[in-house]
Amino acid sequence: MVLEEKVADEVEECSDPHKALRMDPNQQAWSRNERFMKTKILHKNDVSLRLLIEGTNSAFMNTLRRIMLSEVPSMAIDDIVIIENSSIIQDEFLAHRIGLIPLRTDLDTYNLPEDCSCKSEFGCNLCRVSLALEVEAEDHRITVYSGDFKSDNPAIIPVSLKIPLAKLAPEQKIRLEAYARLGKGKDHARWQPVSAVAYKFVPIISVDQNLCDSCGDCVKVCPKNILIKTGNKIEIRNINNCTLCRDCVHACQKDPKAIDVTWDKNSFILNIESTGALTPERILHEALKILNGKLTEFLEKAGKEIEKFKV
Fold this sequence. Notes:
- The protein has six helices and 13 strands.
- It is of the alpha+beta class.
- It starts with a strand and ends with a helix.
């Protein structure tokens, strides 16, 4: 299977998927025999990516979603040595908060512990990063933030420097050492590189102007304001925002209905929202690489088993 990607340096948001692909919406979008999967970026920024993907099925989309959630590695604090904690927050609660801080991740420099050549439970500079936290309140109350951590690698730091961890009253102190490593979301949620990843079918909304009397009932119930009444017509705008709730169809008093909402079973809108540990593009790239590796391994093992039964 070939994934044909078209990535532009500057991408403008496109509200019409058919327009984005320069296709005639009156024709069938994709054939089941289509050999190539095609993608189009609908929206992109530093932490989120929205893609239009055509020529595939829900099984592939769900596989990709689950790999991004559970298989793509990212950096997170795994071990903490608390040297001193005189705050009112217990050590366990403080450690839990610190463990969920998203860290910027460098997959090109660091290895997963199980893949590292050191084979040590304590790790090395190729599979572990050390961070130190030492904050003391002197004569007034202060807040301890994620930005107070000092990392031995300036590239591996909290995504946000303003995540509150604790408040210290005068003469209270927190001093600890933390060790971060690569991990996978299937082991713990702190290693998930995405805060949300979801897909939906590409919506298809049609309004029969011969049946529609422009009463506006469908416009009133639309939760995403996709339907707009202009004069004696109902127009469709920002169709990608449609949630396929079909409230507009239920609100129509005509029989048969003047409006219909369906979807293309071979076309999807994929939304990826990163925690900031990795860029959305890198998360997608790593997920596809992992999937390709799994399929390659399956084919190799299946081929060996088949060879045993050959005469």
